[in-house]
Each structure stands twice: as structure tokens, then as C-alpha cells.
Design a protein that fits this description.
The protein has about 375 residues and is an alpha/beta fold. A 7-stranded mixed β-sheet has the order 2-8-7-6-5-3-4. Helix 8 links the parallel strand 6 and strand 7. Helix 3 packs parallel to helix 10 and helix 11 runs parallel beside helix 13. The chain is globular, with a radius of gyration of 21 Å. Bound molecules: pyridoxal-5'-phosphate (PLP).
């Protein structure tokens, strides 16, 4: 370390986010080809990106000497029409993760706090502490976000509430009318952020109508992403749907070219690729049922999921993670979420799911040897 340069003291409290292990990283370690590795650690689309998005990306490659359209004009117009909101309700980001950072920068500072559920996406706490604010973590009701406990946890210094719905890493969702009621009752001065990264995987009857509340001018922000359903995680693009007041502030703090040109054209093409969307949803529904049925057969407890991942109790998640890696499979250990007995497994193709089920069976039968 060079001479002790003074820095913001709350930085000491941050623990870096540990993402799913990259496929190539494990391939290098094991001395195998990346194609031999099954990665079920980051809830990516097992079918890959939308083919229409790939074509658009190729077609746009020759224009990459130009800066992107900082306003995301075409994507904004298309998405506004689809969501039946105005363009002023939308803000694009370098993944919805960037929007979480921007929200924290706009609304939080030391002395203020954000309320969130325990066992929800770690980034909520990270962005809160990044700006020196306090993260108030509220216990869950079983495996579900406890909205009434969260309502009670709000105080006069609360500015943001984070609700993952469906919630990562539990894969559960709250009842739509409960969340709608929670939003309607929120005290003045508090913004509710509903992270809907997985909302498309839910049956329509399970989805709360957050956009209706936004159209009605309630202080709500819905976060969506192209990383999961659309299979564009590597391009980094997500968006916020919110009231114009909030959107305007986010627009003011974001960098002018925060969404790159490749992401914009690919997302636009992916949006209209109904075939890829339908195939993805069908695959996830079918394969989630398969995976859960096989887990039950192995006698492994899991949390029934409405998303494209399943939280599974294997006894020692760290050991399961390591043993599966030796079998060329990457899942997500859950100790960072305070769930050391669990791993989170992304729903993959039938072939991928078979491999992870087979490996879990081996571990169960053979103890931890090999
Ligand atoms: C994957 C995920 C996102 C999306 O992140 P991007 O930055 O858009 O890739 C947001 N929230 C949760 C809970 C997620 O799991």
C-alpha cells in the first residue's frame, strides 16, 4: 500500500460481490475445453441469445466507430409501446445493476437507509453501503419476502425499499395483491424498487401490476433486464420503468453513453423475437419441473421456484460446489447469502440438467469422495 491516502470510511464495510464462476476459468483449471463445462450458476438463458439479436449484432459491427445513441431512441420507442408507458417513464442502464447504483446515488447518503429482505439479491445491500447508507435487512416469512415486516421496518431515514419479485436466490414471489397493497400504503418520501428481473418466467396471474401503479404516479420503480429471458447478459443492458420524476433524476446522474451500441441493437431485435421468447419460456417451465422432480427423487429439499433457478439444500453447499466442479459443472454456492447448506442451480437444457442430477446422485451415494 502507498502512503495512507484518506478515503471514504464506509468503503471498509463493502465486501466485493462474487459472481458465478466463469466457464473458461474452470476449463483452464481442469485442462478441458469450455464446451465440456456445464454452467448453471448465473441464471443465463440455456438456449443462448436470440438469433435475431445475433443477426442485428453482426449487422451493426461495422458501425462501432460511432458513439451509441445516448438516448436509446429506437429501443425506448419500441419498449414504451409494448409496455404502454411513455418514453419518459424509461431509463436504460448497463444492466439493471447500473440502475441500482444510480438509484442509490440519487436517494441515499450516510445517515439514510434502505430496507430490503434478508436472502435477497446481494447487490441491494452493496449499492446501499457503496454510498455510505445503512442496509436494513428484514427476516423472511419462510422462503418468501415478508412485506408486512418490511413495512414495519421503515423509519424516518428510509428513502428506498428493495423488493425482488420473484426473489433471487429463493425463487419465490409474493402474492400480487400483497405487493400492490404494500405500494399503495408506502409512506411519503419512500421509493419502492421492484426488481422484476425474472418476472417473465411467472404465470401472468402471479404477476403484480406494477406498471399500473407507475402509470397512476405512485413512487415505484420496476427494474427489468435483457440478461435472463432474452439471453443478452454479456451485452449488459437493462431498464427502469418509473414515474417521470424519478426517471429524470436517473437520467441526470447516468453517464451519457452508459448503454453501448451493440446492446441497443441486439435488445431491440431480441424484443421482437417471439419465437426465441416462447421457446425459452417453454424450456424453463418443462425443465424446471424435471429438475425439481429429480431433486425430490434424490431426497433433496428445494424451494419450489417460479423462476429459472432452484435453491437446493445439499447439506454443505461449499462442498457440493467443489465436488460438482470436479465433474465439470458450475453451480452457485450460497454462503454469501447466509445459506451455507444450499446451492442455487440454474434451469438448463435437458442434457445439462441430467448431468447435474446424475452428479448429485453420485455425491449422495458415494459420500464426498472424488
Ligand atoms: C440477474 C439479475 C438482475 C439483472 O442484472 P443485469 O445487470 O441486468 O444483468 C437483476 N436482479 C436480479 C435479482 C438478478 O438476479
Amino acid at each position: 500500500m502507498p502512503a495512507g491516502l484518506p478515503y471514504n470510511p464506509w468503503i471498509d464495510r463493502l465486501s466485493p460481490y462474487v459472481p458465478g464462476r466463469p466457464l473458461e476459468d474452470l476449463a483452464r483449471e481442469l485442462g478441458v475445453e469450455p464446451e465440456d463445462i456445464v454452467k448453471l450458476a448465473s441464471n443465463e438463458n440455456p438456449l443462448g441469445p436470440s438469433p435475431a439479436a445475433v443477426r442485428a449484432l453482426r449487422d451493426a459491427a461495422g458501425s462501432m466507430h460511432r458513439y451509441p445513441d445516448g438516448s436509446c431512441y429506437r429501443l425506448r420507442r419500441e419498449l414504451a409501446a409494448r409496455l404502454r408507458v411513455s418514453g419518459e417513464n424509461l431509463v436504460f442502464g448497463c444492466g439493471s445493476n447500473e440502475l441500482l447504483v444510480l438509484l442509490a446515488q440519487v436517494y441515499l447518503r450516510p445517515g439514510l437507509n434502505a430496507v430490503m429482505s434478508e436472502r435477497s439479491f446481494l447487490i441491494y445491500r452493496l449499492v446501499t453501503e457503496l454510498v455510505g447508507a445503512e442496509a436494513i435487512q428484514v427476516p423472511m416469512a419462510g422462503w418468501t419476502v415478508d412485506l408486512s415486516a418490511m413495512a414495519k421496518a421503515l423509519n424516518e431515514n428510509t428513502r428506498l425499499v428493495f423488493v425482488g419479485n420473484p426473489n433471487n436466490p429463493t425463487g419465490t414471489a409474493v402474492e400480487p395483491d400483497e405487493l400492490e397493497g404494500f405500494i399503495d400504503e408506502i409512506p411519503e418520501g419512500v421509493l419502492v424498487i421492484v426488481d422484476e428481473a425474472y418476472v417473465e418466467f411467472m404465470p401472468p396471474s402471479g404477476r403484480p401490476d406494477i406498471l399500473a401503479r407507475i402509470r397512476a404516479g405512485k413512487p415505484v420503480c420496476s427494474l427489468r433486464t435483457f440478461s435472463k429471458l432474452y439471453g443478452l447478459a454479456g451485452l449488459r443492458i437493462g431498464y427502469a420503468v418509473t414515474v417521470p420524476e424519478v426517471a429524470g433524476l436517473l437520467q441526470r446522474v447516468r453517464q451519457p453513453f452508459n448503454v453501448n451500441a451493440a446492446a441497443q441493437v441486439s435488445a431491440l431485435a431480441g424484443l421482437s423475437d417471439d419465437d426465441h421468447v416462447r421457446r425459452t419460456l417453454e424450456l424453463v417451465e418443462r425443465e424446471r419441473a424435471y429438475l425439481q422432480a429429480e431433486l425430490a427423487r434424490l431426497g433433496l429439499e428445494y424451494v419450489p421456484s417460479c423462476t429459472n433457478f432452484v435453491l437446493v439444500r445439499t447439506g454443505d453447499g461449499g462442498r457440493t460446489f467443489a465436488a460438482l466442479q470436479r465433474r465439470r459443472i458450475i453451480v452457485r454456492p450460497m454462503d454469501a447469502y447466509g445459506l451455507p447448506e444450499y446451492v442455487r442451480i440454474t434451469v438448463g437444457t435437458r442434457e445439462e440438467n441430467r448431468r447435474v442430477v446424475e452428479a448429485l446422485k453420485e455425491l449422495k451415494e458415494g459420500g464426498e469422495k472424488r
